[in-house]
Amino acid sequence: MGVYDYVGKAQIKCWLCEMKGYNVGDKVPNTVGYKDYTILLREGGFVKVGNLEIEAIIETPEHNYVPEDFPGEVCIDKWGDVIISSRDLESYGLMGEDYYYK
What we know:
Blueprint: E1 5-7, E2 10-12, E3 21-22, E4 37-40, E5 45-50, E6 53-59, E7 75-76
Parallel strand pairs: 1-3, 4-7
Antiparallel strand pairs: 1-2, 4-5, 5-6
């Protein structure tokens, strides 16, 4: 809900929330404190950012990625919070729901 940016069908709320669509090769704003990171998409999939440029957008509604899938990389949620392990994604939401849609 509210305003956000997006990649494909996924909402990203850690950038400027200007309702702007981003694609591979686009520069992203420096809003999360890292230049290289992976956003775990709540809708399934991930976005890889390298030197503040989108390197890959993988949308997989049938598969939810977790930080353990990206060893040694910084993983964040769509709001920009660092996620250390898959346990961080359990009982994540306001009402205790998991981060990923069921």
